[in-house]
Amino acid sequence: MSDESSGPAFERLLDYVRESRGFDFGGYKRTTLLRRVAKRMSQVGVKDYAAYLEYLEAQPGEFAALFNTILINVTSYFRDAAAWEYLQREILPRIIASKAPVAVPAAKEKTQETMPHEAASEAQPKEKRLASSSARSAAT
């Protein structure tokens, strides 16, 4: 990759991503963003930001790979017992009392792509506990 750091070509790349896909990475740490974009550029074999912008224009599927490289799947909330207890104690009873329709993802939607295995294995037992305790709350 060239040593153009975060100059005008990089800004044009970010502008293109924002305008074409609606993702604004302006709030990201610049060094982290530069490193992750450089990783994708290296993987697809382009040397500078202008060339990578052309690559994105020609290969729309590259956006998914770029976003997966830039965005980090944060799953620590699945291991946060206090958050689950608060959800069970405060939030779920309100949802149940409202009798409003609720969309809940099915377990089959939890794949390696949507949720890392570790988080899925942590979340599933908690989901079951929450569901059973909420059902008991609704019955009383």
Explain what the structure shows:
The chain is mainly alpha-helical. It folds into 2 domains: 8-70, Chemotaxis Receptor Methyltransferase Cher, domain 1 (Orthogonal Bundle); 76-139. Helices cover 64% and strands 0% of the residues. It contains 6 helices and no strands. Helix 1 (8-21) packs parallel to helix 3 (49-58), helix 2 (30-44) packs antiparallel against helix 4 and helix 5 crosses helix 6. It is elongated, with a radius of gyration of 21 Å. Mean pLDDT is 78; it is low at 109-120.
Order of helices and strands: HHHHHH
In percent, how helical is the residue content? 55-70%
Shape estimate: elongated
Q: What percentage of the residues does DSSP assign to strands (E)?
A: under 5%
Query: How many distinct helices?
Result: 6
Between the first and last Cα atoms, what is the distance in angstroms? Answer: 64 Å
